[in-house]
């Protein structure tokens, strides 16, 4: 007996055979579970090998430790098949409940679907927020997060640039834009505005956790509209399980904002093609928001969609006035803000601070490597990272199967390929400790394609008279077990590097210095003095810039010859200390810097000449 769900809206699950399957395949399930557990145990056993499974954070960005490579191999060859076997072993017991849940999801009315979408957003938000505090200890993963927050603090103070210290070399200027002794973050406007809102409202990084929840909701909405509510839930699950989505969501990078905006832009594109009118305006607005956060990535990602719109306009398949008018009006606020902000910071509306250190627009990189070198060291590297970090081998299969589903899936995959093409024009490989960070916008797009791929596989299984529940159980087992372990292990590694910064802060804050200025070597030089920290590593290489108002009790600046003497007039009410290497077992010590007595006035000699 088969109970058919609405056409194109789910899967026809067998309802009666499960009881007989339990008896018929009991020993098979036990064998599958035993082998699956063995493969998972073998993965953790790799920690006893010479390379181990230790993860570290080291320069250059494209470097991978041997332990990290062992983890990737173990995930693909041990965890994925182990998860498949565990899923198959549990299928006879969980399938009846899964069938009931699937039917219930497919029968949701409009209000229940809305409630479900809100629930997905709440879960995604909590995962991001809790993960930030549990695994990142509410600390940055890279220096540009600190620089962006400084820029937000500058904007919140009502200024575009603030006066830095004299000497300038004492101020931590990594990822800052500096001109004539004035400075701010060189990050894009959208990211700085997000931090400014956090400063003004006292919510800090909350806006980034809210943005992290948007892609899961957007993917669930699109998949529900096209395939049904149950498939919408599967799409949201893929976003939540993807390591490159889950781990980035804990950070405060601009990629979270652009990823959220582009996810909503895809939703508006779907609505605009169906209904037209104001949805073209919405597409333009969300495209502009993403542009303010990551301009080049936004343009490359959206290129296939806008080329398709242009093609339809040329063929008179879309109303020119409503479509073009809506898009132009939507883009206009972002473009005006972009040009005005550039002019206020650099003095040139066409010269963003981010690229002002390079030759614009001909060169967007510090190095002049060849196109072939960039393809290998940047495009190929990030393609590999996408394969590892999106959904692993299962993700590759699902994306490959779902890519040709229809026009939307083809456009989404084209967007990913276009974005990878951007790597040919720069050679900043980007970190991969939270996934291929420069390609974070790809996660929702790939999740949507993967949902269609899984739906196609289930349809094929049904036509071949195979139990779809078995296929779904194996796939979900691989994803939940394999990616669950992958996510947690990488999150724990991020916690280890966050512990470096927690310890450094605790040492300085617990010293009871009061209102003081601490002159220190470069941050990476300081924490590298601790062997345990040196073994883990971190991509945070510089001290956080002090608040533009210098209101904090403790201000940390770079040390150098004569810096203390030059800085004292700027901070007359503060004591000065120097951070120096300590004696075992203490890695550091703080030494007061005595006030320098003013030079004695020259005493005139009898001949009138000073002595």
TrEMBL record:
It is found in: Cell membrane. Residues 596-611 have a biased composition (Low complexity). The chain crosses the membrane at residues 30-51, 72-94, 114-135, 206-224, 230-249, 278-311, 318-341, 381-401, 408-425, 466-486. The keyword Transport does not apply. Keywords: Cell membrane, Glycosyltransferase, Membrane, Transferase, Transmembrane, Transmembrane helix. Residues 584-611 are annotated as: Disordered. InterPro entries: LipidA_mod_glycosyltrf_83 (IPR050297), RgtA/B/C-like (IPR038731). Residues 197-328 form the Glycosyltransferase RgtA/B/C/D-like domain. One of its GO terms (molecular function) is glycosyltransferase activity. The keyword Membrane applies. It is a multi-pass membrane protein. This is Dolichyl-phosphate-mannose-protein mannosyltransferase.
């Amino acid at each position: 007996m088969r109970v058919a769900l609405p056409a194109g809206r789910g899967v026809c699950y067998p309802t009666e055979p499960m009881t007989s399957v339990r008896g018929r395949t009991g020993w098979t399930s036990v064998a599958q579970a035993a082998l699956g557990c063995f493969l998972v145990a073998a993965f953790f056993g790799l920690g006893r090998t010479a390379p181990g499974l230790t993860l570290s954070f080291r320069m250059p960005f494209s470097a991978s430790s041997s332990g990290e490579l062992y983890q990737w191999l173990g995930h693909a060859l041990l965890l994925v098949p182990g998860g498949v076997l565990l899923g198959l072993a549990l299928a006879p017991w969980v399938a009846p409940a899964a069938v009931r849940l699937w039917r219930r999801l497919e029968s949701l009315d409009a209000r229940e679907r809305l409630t479900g979408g809100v629930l997905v957003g709440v879960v995604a938000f909590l995962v991001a927020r809790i993960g930030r505090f549990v695994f990142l200890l509410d600390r940055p993963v890279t220096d540009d997060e600190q620089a962006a927050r400084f820029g937000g603090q500058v904007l919140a103070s009502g200024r575009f640039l603030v006066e830095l210290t004299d000497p300038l070399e004492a101020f931590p200027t990594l990822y800052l834009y500096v001109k004539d002794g004035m400075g701010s973050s060189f990050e894009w406007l959208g990211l700085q505005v997000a931090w400014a809102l956090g400063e003004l409202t006292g919510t800090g990084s909350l806006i980034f956790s809210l943005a992290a929840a948007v892609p899961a909701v957007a993917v669930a909405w699109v998949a529900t509209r096209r395939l049904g509510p149950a498939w919408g839930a599967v799409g949201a699950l893929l976003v939540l399980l993807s390591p490159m989505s889950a781990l980035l969501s804990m950070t405060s990078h601009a990629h979270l904002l652009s990823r959220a905006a582009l996810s909503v832009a895809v939703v508006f594109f779907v609505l605009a093609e169906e209904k037209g009118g104001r949805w073209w305006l919405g597409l333009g607005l969300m495209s502009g928001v993403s542009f303010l956060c990551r301009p080049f990535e936004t343009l490359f990602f959206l290129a296939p969609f806008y080329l398709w719109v242009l093609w339809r306009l040329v063929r008179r398949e879309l109303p020119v006035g409503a479509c073009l008018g809506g898009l132009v009006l939507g883009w206009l606020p972002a473009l005006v803000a972009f040009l005005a902000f550039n002019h206020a910071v650099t003095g040139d509306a066409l010269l963003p601070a981010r690229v002002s250190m390079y030759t614009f627009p001909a060169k967007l990189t510090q190095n002049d490597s060849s196109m072939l070198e960039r393809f290998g060291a940047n495009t190929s590297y990030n393609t590999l990272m996408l394969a590892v970090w999106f959904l692993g081998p299962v993700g590759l299969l699902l994306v490959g199967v779902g890519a040709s589903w229809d026009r939307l899936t083809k456009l989404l995959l084209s967007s990913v390929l276009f974005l990878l093409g951007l790597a040919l024009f720069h050679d900043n490989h980007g970190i991969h400790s939270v996934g291929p960070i420069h390609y974070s916008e790809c996660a929702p797009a790939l999740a949507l394609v993967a949902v269609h791929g899984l739906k196609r596989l289930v349809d094929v299984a049904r036509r071949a008279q195979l139990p779809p529940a078995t296929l779904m159980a194996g796939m979900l087992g691989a994803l939940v077990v394999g990616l669950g372990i992958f996510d947690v292990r990488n999150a724990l590694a991020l916690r280890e590097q966050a512990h470096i910064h927690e310890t450094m802060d605790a040492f300085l804050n617990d010293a009871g210095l009061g209102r003081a200025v601490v002159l220190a070597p470069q941050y990476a030089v300081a924490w590298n003095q601790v062997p345990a920290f040196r073994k883990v590593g971190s991509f945070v290489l510089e001290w956080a810039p002090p608040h533009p108002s210098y209101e904090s009790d403790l201000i940390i600046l770079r040390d150098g010859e004569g810096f203390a003497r030059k800085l004292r007039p700027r901070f007359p009410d503060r004591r000065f200390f120097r951070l120096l290497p300590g004696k075992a077992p203490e890695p550091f010590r703080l030494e007061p810097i005595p006030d320098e007595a003013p030079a004695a006035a020259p005493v005139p000699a009898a001949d009138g000449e000073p002595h």
